Structure formats: structure tokens, C-alpha cells
């Protein structure tokens, strides 16, 4: 795995102003696989200055849309040629199973980029409206300015592209701050940006820890912060941006509920929950971590779910046969394990899994895929985001009770209902307040908005709504005599 000795600022690879480095540790075998510079607040200042100059005086925001899209199409082509490399890096640095890294992680970044490029051609960048007292008004979308993009560890390329692609298409300039746990894929992306030949300062990549991140968020020359991560940190970012009247989008946590109706097939539904609940080793904000089953048929669903969880293959994420890899860090392993212990203390029954290392593993940051039953929705394991392969089964009496339980959460990111009857499924969907909801499916599409209600965030990524959040709306009045 390659070491990086520089950061990418103003179109060049330059040394950090500090001497500290970040060690990238394999979640599988706990060895150091690479080192990168640990960016400083001074590095952030340099990146912001470059982005500010590129936006205020450079060609990028003044280019015709078709010209910007040519650059991004070239970036997509270069990206496609190195998909396998991206996938292998992501698996090595954060532990995603390699099959997921190929099909969702690296490929997700590429699909997001290409989807946003295609969307840009249809986006309503400008329209003319009639006015009551004068000539027509031109309503147009302008770039929001300098963007600080703070990316999490769990889907690093998909989520950097959710910010970078619409920002660049809109004409913004960007400082990318990858997660310190997995900056290698972002630095590889910077190599591609350099190859494409984007104007200096348009894209800057600075791996760094929390101190530099806070400096970026508070920087007065940054017009917008785009953040994906935990709700507590998102609240802090929104507060700082609100104080300074700067724009922000914050895509935050979730505790999504999958409601299984009485007519759903137990085996088929449990099979669907394998991806919906345990994809990326449970490290997903939209994971269906509360599974609601009808009390009248609970045994059938619980038995099918238990069989599914017991069948999950845990181990080396570079093995294509593995379903569940390690947690990203030792701290995350300890956090998830503490919740597994807490569930038992709260009175839930551990039907599958529990604390301790999975069978056959003696090292790495692994936890056992765990299924809790006899869970009350008021328990902490049912209310708090665990971010690991831990699922709670909660019983309900009738549809009204199921909807009440699903809604009884501080979050509102995703959810689903599982049934053989479309009418019944849509009736449930019409009562749920979440940013995403599936009827007999669990999916995400880059042409449709992604984001949440309540504590799950502010703003949307993907689709035209994602482009909206990187623009400002300007109304231009022109004297009719000049028309």
C-alpha cells in the first residue's frame, strides 16, 4: 500500500506545514499499511486560500457548463480505469468486504459522478418569469462558492462524490477533508484530479484529524460545509455555520425500522435483511437496525432472521466469500461490543452473537453479528445508533402499533415495509416520516434525493436536489428597453 508524503493544494503536491503523520492501520490484522501527512490548520488555510482565489478570480466558475462537464467526464473515464485499485484500497483501509467495495464503494463513486454529469444537462439552471410591473425576470442558479467537504469512513468514495460532483458542476471550488481512518482513496482521487488538469485550486485534498476539521468548519472564507457523519458532530457544525450565516448540508445518523407485515414470506424477508441490515458490516447510516415483526407470527420471522444471521461469514474482508468484515477501528469495535453488552443488561435476549470475537478469529477489530429479541423500543440499543452488525427485533400488535414504534425515534433517515400486497405497503409508507422509504425493497439511487428528517440531517444529496444545495438563486431584472 502506497505512502503519501504530501497533500494536494492549489493543483500541486506540497508538504504539510507540520511533521505529524496519520498511520493507516489494517482493521483485519492491525498492522500499519501506510502513512500520510496529518494536515494542520495552516494547511487548511492554504487550501482555503487556493480555493478562494480559484473561485473569485479563476476560470472555473466562469466556464460554460459544457466545459466543466468535459473535465468531469474525463475524470469519470480515469476513475473507471482504476476501479479495482479504489476497491482494494477501501477494503484495506476501512475493512469493507471486497465484493461490496467493488460493487458499492468504488463503483458507487463512479456511478454518482456519471449520474450527476447526466443530470446537469437537464437541470434548470435558468428560467425567465413574467413580472407584474416591469419586463421579465431572469431567475438563475449560481455556484455557492468555496465548499468544505468533510467525508466519513464508511462509504468514502460514494460520499465524497456526492459532494464533489455537484459542487464542481455548479462551479464551486472544494477542499476535501477525508476521514483520518481512511484517507488513501481520497489521495488517489487527487491523483486523478491532477491528471485531468483541473485549474489550480479547484480541488484540494487535505487529510487531517479533528483539529483541522474544526478549523475548516469555522473558516470565514468557506461559503458552505458539506458533512456526512454523526448527529452530535453535525449539530456542532450546523451551529457554527448558523452563527456565521454560512450554508451547510449535514447528512447524519439513523435508526431505521423495517416493518414486516403478516403476509410477508419469512425466508425471503430475512434474505433481504442480510443486505438491508448488515451491509458494510453494519456501518451504514441507513441500515435497517430495528426489525418490527407482528406478534401473531413472530416465531416464523425470528427463526428465519436467526438462520440468516448465523449464516453470515465473518473474516478477512479481502476474501470475496466474506459477508461481514471488521469494524474500522479498535475504538469502534469497543463501542459496538459495549452496546452488545448493554443490550443484555437492558433485558434483551441475545439470540445470535454476543460479545467476544467471532469464531476462528484471534486478531482484528471484529465483532460477532448479533441479533437481539425481546427488545423494547425504549431501550438504548433500539434508540441509539450503534454502527455495527447489531440488529434488534421488536414485536408489534397491529399496523398502528408498528407505525408508532417506527416513528418513535430521534432519527428519520430511512425505513422499509415488507409485504406481498402493494396497497398495504403503500398505506404504511404514507404514514412514515423519513427521507427514504422502501416498499419490499431497500435501495439508493443517485438520481433521487438522499437525506433525512429530524436528527438525521439537513439538506439532500444526489439528484437535482443535490445540485440545489451547491447553488444560490439569483433574480436578475433587466430593463425591457434593453431586451
Automatic annotation (TrEMBL):
SUPFAM superfamilies: ALDH-like (SSF53720). InterPro entries: Ald_DH/histidinol_DH, Ald_DH_C, Ald_DH_CS_GLU, Ald_DH_N, Aldehyde_DH_dom. Signal peptide: none annotated. Keywords: Oxidoreductase. The active site is at 251. Belongs to the aldehyde dehydrogenase family. GO terms for molecular function: oxidoreductase activity, acting on the aldehyde or oxo group of donors, NAD or NADP as acceptor. Residues 13-475 form the Aldehyde dehydrogenase domain. It comes from the Bacteria. This is Betaine-aldehyde dehydrogenase.
